[in-house]
């Protein structure tokens, strides 16, 4: 319960900070009602949290606690000190999430699940938490396997979960950074301008900039695009086949993977 409270506290705090940031210095004008989108996007977040509790008896942090207790996993076998295993865990898990994200774009069946995230026609802080429940469960299973194999310490998994959720909200924010600051930050982490390219309706741009936290993976694995073809103000965001306003309703979002229209 304490771990969940910590995670929830960081989620609310980062959501609040990014929301204020978007209001003060917005990057793009919104095309739809913010209240309408937010109520459905955040409703989906609540549904996903409940689904994880029901479907998975152990989450990634719970598995880390078990592997620590049982001495299972590479880090435990090597008896790595905490000061070393924590940053390596964050590094490895972030790479795993990069490849998971890339896989969800390249495998047609998985793309049908993930495209619900891309069907948001405005991109803002809530888009960073808008994922189909089936994708959320699959993502958690992938993290569980990775945590068990490397024997990640629980504190490292908690730190990574906070970083992953926080960076997703940060880099989906509809907020403006100066060109110089963006250029500096994206040498290490994914910025809103870098990730916004990923939400383009142009498929080549959509299939790029997969990183969530560290920006190095896209450069290392050849999936980096610096700027959108039509510029950040001129680019179109979303999925062409799901452009009707009612597609932003939670019931429509949940059925998108199973519909062609």
Blueprint of the fold:
Blueprint: H1 2-24, H2 34-55, H3 60-70, H4 74-78, H5 82-106, H6 108-118, H7 133-150, H8 154-171, H9 179-185, H10 192-196, H11 203-206, H12 216-220, H13 231-234, H14 250-255
GO biological process, one term: lipid biosynthetic process
Keywords: Membrane, Transmembrane, Transmembrane helix
InterPro entries: Fatty_acid_hydroxylase, Sterol_Desaturase_Related
Description of the molecule:
This protein has helices at 2-24, 34-55, 60-70, 74-78, 82-106, 108-118, 133-150, 154-171, 179-185, 192-196, 203-206, 216-220, 231-234, 250-255. It has one domain. It is built from 14 helices and no strands. It starts with a helix and ends in a 6-residue tail after the last helix. The mean pLDDT is 94. By secondary structure, the protein is mainly α. Helix 1 runs parallel beside helix 8 (154-171) and helix 5 (82-106) packs across helix 8 (154-171).
Largest sheet: none
| Number of β-strand runs | 0
By DSSP (H or I, 4+ residues per run), the number of helices equals: 14
**Low-pLDDT regions:** none
The arrangement of helices and strands along the chain is HHHHHHHHHHHHHH
What characteristic shape results from the CA principal axes?
globular
Report strand %: under 5%
Structural class: mainly alpha
Q: Rg, please? A: 18 Å
The average pLDDT is 94
- Binned, the helix content reads 55-70%
Distance between the termini: 41 Å
Overall tally of structural domains: 1
């Amino acid at each position: 319960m304490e771990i969940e409270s910590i995670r929830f506290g960081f989620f609310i705090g980062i959501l609040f900070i990014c929301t204020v940031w978007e209001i003060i210095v917005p990057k793009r004008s919104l095309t739809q009602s913010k209240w309408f989108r937010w109520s459905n996007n955040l409703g989906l977040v609540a549904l996903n949290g409940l689904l994880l509790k029901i479907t998975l008896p152990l989450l990634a942090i719970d598995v880390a606690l078990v592997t620590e207790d049982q001495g299972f996993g590479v880090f435990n076998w090597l008896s790595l000190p905490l000061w070393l295993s924590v940053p390596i865990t964050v590094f490895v898990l972030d790479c795993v999430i990069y490849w998971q994200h890339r896989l969800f774009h390249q495998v047609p069946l998985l793309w049908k699940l993930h495209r619900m995230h891309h069907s948001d026609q405005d991109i803002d802080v809530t888009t960073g938490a808008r994922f189909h429940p089936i994708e959320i469960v699959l993502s958690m299973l992938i993290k569980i396997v990775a945590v068990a194999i490397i024997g990640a310490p629980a504190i490292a998994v908690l730190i990574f979960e906070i970083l992953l959720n926080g960076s997703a909200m940060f880099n989906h924010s509809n907020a403006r950074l100066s060109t110089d600051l963006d250029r500096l930050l994206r040498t290490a982490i994914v910025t809103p301008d870098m990730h916004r390219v990923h939400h383009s309706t142009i498929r080549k741009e959509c299939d790029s900039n997969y990183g969530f936290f560290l920006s190095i993976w896209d450069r290392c694995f050849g999936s980096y695009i610096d700027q959108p073809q039509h510029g950040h103000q001129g680019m179109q965001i979303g999925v062409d086949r799901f452009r009707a306003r009612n597609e932003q309703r939670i019931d429509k979002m949940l059925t998108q993977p199973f519909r062609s229209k």
